[in-house]
Amino acid sequence: MGLAYYILDTETTGVKAGWHEVVEISIIRCSDRHQLTRFIKAEYPERADERALMVTGKSIPDLMNGDSKEDVIGMCERFFDQDGLTPSHRCIIGHNVSFDKRFCHAMWESVGRVFPAVCWLDTLKVSKEWAKKIGRKPDNVQLSTLLKFADVKLQNVHSAEGDTRNLYIFWKKHLSKLNTVSMIKREPHLVK
């Protein structure tokens, strides 16, 4: 049984998982390109960091829109369960994926659940290997810079839905052709 790959991105109210919240999550199942995107109603909008709001273009009232995190977690779990696999057979791909992992783990843990994927692959590292392989180097490894460098048309930057689509195209067009097995980190969600 091989790995099922998923592109995942979150938008949050700041950088501290467990204090700041996920307010948008988007997941693309690479095998069939199905995408799930949900906005999540913030429980603590007053904790939002001004810089995070500026990056995402959201206001405090915007944070009050969306589904409850419990409902979104249930939707995400049903989406993952459609593959018929165990968490050990799912690999989450993301750009600076350790950030998203911390937030997903904190969100699932806040409702007494375990995130349903164990393997994580960071396209920050993969894109550096890709740049070495093609013999050119982008100015930096920010997702928008890499996408322009790779000739991927940007859409809806700084939204989880847009960034997962952008990363999926970059992944399919360039990164999936590399041998990334050694770059996958196995990091199960250990509930505290």
What do these coordinates show?
This protein has 192 residues and is an alpha/beta fold. It has 6 helices and 6 strands. Strands 3-2-1-4-5-6 form a 6-stranded mixed β-sheet, with helices on both faces. The model has no long low-confidence stretch (mean pLDDT 94).
Topology:
Blueprint: E1 4-12, E2 22-29, E3 34-39, H1 50-56, H2 69-81, E4 90-94, H3 97-109, E5 119-122, H4 123-134, H5 143-149, H6 160-173, E6 185-186
Report how far the terminal alpha carbons are from each other.
Answer: 30 Å
Estimate percent helicity. Answer: 25-40%
The pLDDT mean sits at 94
The share of residues in extended strands comes to 15-25%
Helix segment tally? 6
* Global Rg: 16 Å
What class do helices, strands and sheet pairing give? alpha/beta
Kindly state the number of beta strands.
6
Q: Which series of helices and strands comes N to C?
A: EEEHHEHEHHHE
Strand order of the largest sheet: 3-2-1-4-5-6
Spatial shape: globular
Oligomer: single chain
Question: What does the largest sheet look like?
Answer: 6 strands, mixed
> Poorly predicted ranges (pLDDT <50, ≥5 residues)?
none
Please outline what is shown here:
This protein is an alpha/beta fold and 192 residues long. Helices cover 34% and strands 18% of the residues.
